[in-house]
Amino acid sequence: CEDAEMAVNDKDAPTELQAHFTLTSTVLFAVGQTIGSGIFVSPNEVIKQVESPGMALLIWVLSGFISLCGALSFSELGTLIKRSGGELQYIKAAYGDLPAFLYFWVCGVIRNSMGCAVIGLTFSSYLVNLAIPHTHPHFVVVKKCTAALAIVVIIAVMTWSTKWGVRMANLFCILKLLALSFLVVLGVWQLARGDTENISRGFEGTNKNPGTWTTAFFAALWSYSGWNCINMMSGEIKDAGKNVPRALVLSQVLLISVYLLANLAYCSILSLEELYHEDAIALYVGRKMLGEFGETWARAGELFFGISVAVSSFGSLSSSLMGSSRLPFIAAQEGMMPQFLALIQKSTGTPIVSLIFIGGTAFLCVWSSTISTLISYVGFLSWFWWGLCFLAVPILRLKMPHSHRQFKVFMGFPVLAVLSTVYLVVGPFFVTPIPCLAWIGVTLIGVPVFYGYVDTKNTAGRAMDWVLRKLSKLLCADL
Q: What are the strands, taking DSSP E only, across 315-474?
């Protein structure tokens, strides 16, 4: 126990960044990071799986509560282990080096690449829908080509200059908030007129198969993903013991409220048939509501939502690729990945190999499947590892009983989070068992890699050194 406690605050640990986030800035950061492309693509997948507006709204509320339980569980972990790194640090402290490597192996590359692909496909769905109807025979091919091209362009820009990548990520961030606000206003307007026909159906016709509900939960939880971003930078928050749990609770309450209003807007404006068959649902909300004033206004509504969501998704894609590239970069620095992934381009300071690596895997993911399927895969992988983090709360209380905890969560919250995770991870085996077994197989492949390369550094050492030297010369990069 003493060794575990010393490892968390080891004197040789990397120096932490200066704490500069206040409670208000932390809440705004969490909300801004969480609200992304998900709310513009997930609602139709939720309604397709549960088949009633009442159940869909309940799924959104329950997803928010599950995220809140997870966030509160993370709040204790974040104030106990203050080093930046989030889940990696929690898994390493609770379970050891092998599980920490497997987290990097699965989530640091595969899950994050699929997440980037989802954002890229959201961007292309809204952009292409402005020119080609979704019923066009070449719509899917054009959409995937556009998403793949977006990834290539962003990687090229960030390889050239990280500063330009940051500017591109920040430039249109406000557009997603404007689009979401306008969506809520249109929904309130519709309800104020007494047009509640779609919502009045309630739970009528609900799909009663709990196995398919997991897909709906994954779609909704995709929109809430980002609640763990606070713990990734807990070392940079002032008075973390008080402000981390407060910020997590406040941000989740705000998000639940905003997402409920957005879904009320979708369900009140669009029919269930329209929700079933449209990917770019916000675009059709604009067309339908403003179309009452004429075709010109209908087109204006399409353009507003189409351009706003597409451009903000492009910015989110830039941020996601940039952030995701740092994980293999850090893993390489810590000896968990080949060292050449830690190469930094001399002229720009960009982690060029790691960036190209993540961009390449995201490029492949775009062609592999649909938005809904990728979201399900991301959800399955994410919640498996998050479940281990929730379970780490009682485990670390046993392993590190004397460590100072500025915040101790009521144990009921981690228990509820773990039970929710069991349902979310086990449920898909009854609906889509083959992909679930495949992901388990991919995870287990990491075990011999860990013992053959990471743990001994002998098996592939010479080959990796040769690759490192060649890439260093080719890309004018250094460690």
A: 344-345
Rounded Cα distance between 345 and 161, Å, is 10
Q: State residue 237 phi and psi, 5-degree precision.
A: -105, 130
Tell me if 265 sits within 8 A of 285, measured CB to CB: yes
The distance from CA 266 to its chain's CA centroid, rounded to whole angstroms, is 22
Q: Report which DSSP code applies to 134.
A: T
Structure tokens at 229: 């971003």
Q: What are the b/e assignments for 338-348, b being 16+ CB within 10 Å?
A: bbbbbbbbeeb
Instruction: Give the separation between CA 472 and CA 2, rounded to whole angstroms.
Output: 42
At CB < 8 A and 24+ separation, what contacts does 344-347 make? 344/477, 344/478, 344/479, 345/159, 345/475, 345/476, 345/477, 346/476, 346/477, 346/478, 347/476
| pLDDT tier, 421 (very low <50, low <70, confident <90, very high otherwise) | very high
**3-state SS class at 301:** helix
φ and ψ of 228, to 5 deg:
-85, 0
- Give the pLDDT band (50/70/90) at residue 437: very high
Q: Which amino acid is at 225?
A: S
Name the band, by pLDDT with cuts 50, 70 and 90, for residue 7: very low
Rounded to an integer, what distance in angstroms lies between the CA atom of residue 346 and that of residue 340? 14
Nearest-Å Rg of the Cα atoms of the chain is 23
CB atoms within 10 A of CB 253: 13
d(CA 177, CA 477): 38
Phi, psi of 5 (to 5 degrees): -65, -40
DSSP assignments along 170-224, one per residue: HHTHHHHHHHHHHHHHHHHHHHHTT--TTGGGTTTT----HHHHHHHHHHHHHHH
pLDDT value at 283 more than 90: no
Question: How distant, in Å, are the alpha carbons of 106, 444, 446 from that of 103?
Answer: 5, 11, 9
Tell me the DSSP string of 102-133: HHIIIIIIIIHHHHHHHHHHHHHHHHHHTTS-
For CA atoms 230, 234, 237, 239, the dihedral sign is positive
Per the DSSP assignment, residues forming a β-bridge with 345 are 477
**Residue 21 φ/ψ, nearest 5 degrees:** -90, 125
Contacts 24+ apart (CB under 8 A), 60-64: 60/220, 60/256, 60/259, 60/260, 60/263, 61/256, 61/260, 62/217, 63/217, 63/220, 63/221, 63/223, 63/224, 64/224, 64/252, 64/255, 64/256, 64/259
* Burial (0-12, 13-18, 19+ Cβ within 10 Å), 257: exposed
Please name the amino acid found at residue 324: S
